[in-house]
Amino acid sequence: GAVVSQHPSRVICKSGTSVKIECRSLDFQATTMFWYRQFPKQSLMLMATSNEGSKATYEQGVEKDKFLINHASLTLSTLTVTSAHPEDSSFYICSASKGAENEQFFGPGTRLTVL
Amino acid sequence: GQSLEQPSEVTAVEGAIVQINCTYQTSGFYGLSWYQQHDGGAPTFLSYNALDGLEETGRFSSFLSRSDSYGYLLLQELQMKDSASYFCAVSGNTGKLIFGQGTTLQVKP
After folding, report:
1. Do A102 and B102 touch (CB under 8 A)?
2. For A104, which of B94, B97, B100 is closest by C-beta distance?
3. Which of A11, A65, B8, B97 lies 20 to 30 Å from A18 when distance is taken between CA atoms?
4. Which chain A residues are closer than 8 Å to B39 by Cβ?
5. How far is CA B27 from CA A59, A94, B6, B30, B96, in A?
6. Tens digits of per-residue pLDDT, A16-28?
7. How far apart are the C-alpha atoms of A71 and A51, rounded to whole Å?
C-alpha cells in the first residue's frame, strides 16, 4: 500500500500563534512531498514541493517565511504556519510521491481554524 | 502557464452515465489524472492517462487525447455515493500536480 497520515486532523488556534502540521508516509519512502491548501468550494492549490534534505520550492505567491517546510527524513515532512491569522484558516493537505511514478498519495488533510 | 477547464457542476440520476470533460494548457505535459473528493475529505486517486485512449477501471473510465489537450472521466451506473467533487490534474516533468477547479457531481435518486 501507500498510506500517508497527517497530524493533527483538526486544529484551532489563536491569531498570532504558530501551528505545526506533520505529514508521514507510513509504508513507503517518499522522495518528494507536496503541500496544498484548499479553501471551501475551491480547488487544491499547490503551496510547495519538498524534497528530503533540501530546501522546499515554493509556488509563486506563497510566503516561505510564513509557511515553513521541513523535510527531515524520507517519511516525514512538516509545515509550520507562523503567526497565523484568520485568513490562514483552510484545509491543508499533503501528498507524497515515491519518485519515478506520477501518482501522488494524499494524506487525510488538516483543517486549521485561526480565531 | 498552466490552466485547466472543467464544468463546475453536473447533475445526474442514479444508474445513469456521466462524462466530465477537462481541457488543459500546459508545457511539459506528462499525463492527466483524475481525483475524487467527498466533502471534508482528502482527494483519492481515480485514474491516470499518459497515452491517448481509454483506460477502464470498473465503473469509471478515463480518456485522453494529447493532440487535443483534452480528456474526460466517464462514470457509469451512477450511485448516490458517487456524489462528490471530481478534479482533473496535469502533471509534468517536475512531478507537480496542477489541479482544475473541480466538478461537483450531484447524483439524484
Report:
1. no
2. B97
3. B97
4. none
5. 16, 24, 19, 9, 12
6. 999 999 999 999 9
7. 6
Q: Name every chain B residue with its beta carbon within 8 A of the beta carbon of A109.
A: 41-42
Give residue for cell 520550492.
A57
* Nearest in space to B31 (alpha carbons), one of B65, B78, B79, B81: B65
- Of the pLDDT bands very low, low, confident and very high (cuts 50, 70, 90), residue A103 is confident
Task: Tell me whether residue A71 is exposed, middle or buried, using C-beta atoms within 10 angstroms of its C-beta: 0 to 12, 13 to 18, 19 or more.
Answer: buried
B22 is written with which cell numbers? Answer: 477537462
Cell of A67: 509557511
Confirm or reject contact between B71 and chain A (CB < 8 A): no
Nearest chain A alpha carbon to B42: A108
Do B97 and A46 count as a contact with CB atoms less than 8 A apart? yes
* DSSP, residue by residue, B31-93: EEEEEEE-TTS--EEEEEE-SSEEEEETTEEEEEETTTTEEEEEE-S--GGG-EEEEEEEEET
Cell of B87: 478534479
* CA dihedral sign, ordered B64, A99, A94, B46: positive
Does the beta-carbon distance from A32 to B95 stay under 8 Å?
A: yes
Q: What is the pLDDT of residue A101?
A: 60
